[in-house]
Design goal:
Structural class: alpha/beta
Radius of gyration: 34 Å
Strand order of the largest sheet: 10-9-8-11-12-13-18-23-22
Shape: elongated
Helix content: 40-55%
Largest sheet: 9 strands, mixed
Number of helices: 21
Strand content: 5-15%
């Protein structure tokens, strides 16, 4: 029986509710008169007409207040408040109409009795129906109660889509416009963001349907609703929507990119194409996080040839396959397996293809891993860079761009120290010749890169926790891979030789705050001593070998602006090639002999500010 009722169409269900309410208001009026008179009251013809005609007054008012738009399974405090408003208005108008038209006087107390009984009956019937059908609603139904943030065109489109969805059901709008708040759109109430607190137990998710707003405005909205443990999804920008039409598949979960308070600067197309269009470009470490994104953007800028140089066979296969599937000229992509430490192979590659531009992204970059494998970090990051740079000079390459790291600034780990020496190599080589323009680009963490904390947090949330944070005070700079690579390419085009470019990473992000925000935006609660019934716990594991609490981007204060406000040119101290060459020879011997103490001693001597955060922990080191 109950299932048959639930299977009825929305229209038929509405007709049943209209019929029940019609009968209810008539019966309530009869009861009101009987209660006032103290006996079962049989009204005379004129009063009976007022009672029988009451549904013609009540139903339009109930409809105006949205009582037939509110679905029984989503009855909440807000709906009952609408019932209260509707019944108060109906009772008042009916009483006034009765006093003006009835030949015999109607007791004034009838208005109040009718109002009280109507509230109890109209609201009570809905609550009764909710509990009657509650079990039937839950069986096989996974619909989520959704609030739509944004009562504009996109929000209205989204409501229309969700009304036919089995996954989400719209129960109202949130909008910052004072003019819209309190109104109804498509039968749904429009609330202010502050009213979410009153609805928290009736809402499962918030869907941000404002595709045309700026990134800063979107972040402001996210920060407002971040106070509540509700799952948040967002529509992409208008340019990503097909013909400006909203589809359910357009909704996506909040990404870390949405949480970064950063101004977006449109890239300079002339700078993007300067070293790439109609040129032969080589990317070392082409299968890595930065390298692969470099390749994706380079291929769209129409190089004459793109060479993918990579030591990992699987990584090389993946990026070559991806690029070939989107490139109209797949024959100009050449996947080359090789190590940056194999100078002969690199020389052969540079000679065969007559390389114009090199983006050197090959590096061991994970701090704890390099601490455990010191000599490989030295060989790859320092001598691999040296090999690439020397071959580039010998083969008259026009431009050589090194992908560096903020960890090269006053490093506390071996990885950062090796990256700073790689920078020193390019600075010194640039000073001794004018054929190849060597450029260094230094930036912090990129989102979504291998080993990044963001994918780790997402997986830990999916697994039910705990989220592992090294230290409650640790902060990091973040930038999207796409934006970082755009800025790298532009920096390389601005380089005059020996330049150190530093990318403006925006404001640093506290990792503990980031972890908590990601939990809440997943619709979950932090589990701690103040909330033992929460969903996800955060555990502090302590800094790993070589890690520090804060990262920096500049060694000194000598920095100047460029034509792009997100790119700064730094003036850093350097060594002459003759000075550096002797140091590199000593470092080479120490690395070959696995002399870890001497390696560390040389790194400390050469790199300003290098203060190792941990003792030597290389796996092969004899303590």
């Amino acid at each position: 029986m109950l299932k048959n009722i639930l299977d009825l169409s929305r229209f038929n269900k509405k007709l049943i509710m209209l019929l029940i309410d019609s009968i209810t208001v008539v019966i309530v009026l009869l009861l009101s008169f009987s209660t006032r008179m103290g006996y079962w009251y049989i009204p005379e013809q004129d009063v009976m007409f007022l009672i029988i005609s009451s549904p013609f007054l009540a139903l339009p008012i109930f409809t105006y207040f949205g009582l037939y738009k509110a679905v029984i399974r989503y009855i909440n405090f807000i709906v009952l408040l609408d019932v209260l408003k509707a019944v108060l208005l109906y009772s008042l108008i009916w009483g006034m109409f009765g006093f003006l038209t009835a030949p015999q006087e109607i007791p004034r107390s009838i208005i109040f009795i009718n109002c009280a009984f109507s509230i109890l009956s109209i609201g009570g019937l809905r609550v009764f129906a909710y509990f009657l059908f509650k079990n039937s609603f839950s069986q096989g139904n996974n619909q989520k109660n959704s609030l739509i943030y944004g009562a504009g065109e996109a929000g209205i489109q989204l409501v229309s889509v969700l009304e036919h969805s089995s996954s989400s059901f719209p129960i109202g709008f949130i909008d910052d416009s004072k003019e819209l708040q309190g109104r109804k759109i498509k039968g749904l109430n429009v609330y202010s963001v502050d009213e979410i607190a009153n609805m928290i137990h009736d809402v499962d998710e918030i869907l941000i349907a404002m595709p045309s707003i700026s990134k800063l405005k979107k972040l402001s909205i996210i920060n407002k609703i971040d106070l509540y443990p509700l799952k948040v999804k967002v529509l992409p920008g208008m340019e990503e929507l097909v013909n400006g039409k909203v589809e359910l598949s357009d909704l996506r979960e909040i990404s870390i990119n949405d949480l970064l308070w950063r101004d977006i600067v449109e890239p300079n197309k002339n700078l993007l194409s300067k070293n790439i269009t109609n040129k032969t470009v080589l990317v070392s470490g082409a299968g890595g996080s930065i390298g692969s994104e470099l390749c994706r953007q380079i291929i769209l800028l129409n190089p004459k040839v793109l060479i993918l140089y990579e030591i990992s066979e699987l990584a090389l296969y993946n990026i070559q396959k991806e690029l070939s599937s989107v490139n109209t000229l797949p024959k100009n992509i050449y996947p080359i397996l090789g190590s940056v430490n194999d100078k002969n192979r690199m020389t052969r590659v540079f000679q065969k293809f007559n390389v114009d531009t090199v983006y050197h992204a090959a590096a061991y970059k994970h701090v704890p891993m390099v601490e455990l494998n010191t000599t490989e970090g030295v060989n790859n990051n320092i001598f691999g860079t040296l090999n690439c740079a020397l071959v580039a000079m010998e083969q008259s390459v026009e431009t050589f761009v090194l992908i560096s790291s903020d960890k090269a600034v006053r490093p506390s780990n071996t990885m950062g120290a090796t990256k700073r020496i790689a920078e020193l190599i390019l600075q010194s080589l640039s000073a001794k010749q004018e054929i190849t323009k060597f450029t260094i680009v230094r930036f912090g963490n990129v989102l979504g890169s291998s080993g990044s904390v963001i994918p780790l947090f997402k997986q830990q949330i999916k697994d039910g926790g705990p989220l592992t944070v090294t230290d409650q005070k640790v902060v990091r700079y973040f930038m999207t891979i796409k934006e970082a690579v755009e800025l790298v390419i532009q920096s390389g085009a601005m380089g005059l030789g020996g330049d150190v470019f530093v990318l403006n990473m925006g404001n640093p992000v506290k990792i503990d705050d980031l972890a908590r925000k990601m939990v809440r935006l997943s619709g979950l609660q932090i589990k701690d001593s103040s909330n033992p019934g929460g969903d996800i716990e955060i555990k502090y594991t302590g800094l790993r070998p070589g890690e520090k609490l804060f990262e920096e981007l500049l060694i000194g204060d000598n920095v100047s602006d460029t034509e792009n406000p997100l790119i700064m040119r730094a003036k850093e101290d350097m060594l002459t090639w003759d000075e550096l060459k002797l140091i590199l020879e000593d470092l080479k011997l120490s690395s070959k002999d696995f002399n870890y103490k001497e390696i560390r001693s040389i790194l400390i001597r050469v790199v300003p500010g290098f203060k190792p955060q941990s003792p030597i922990v290389d796996i092969l080191h004899k303590n």
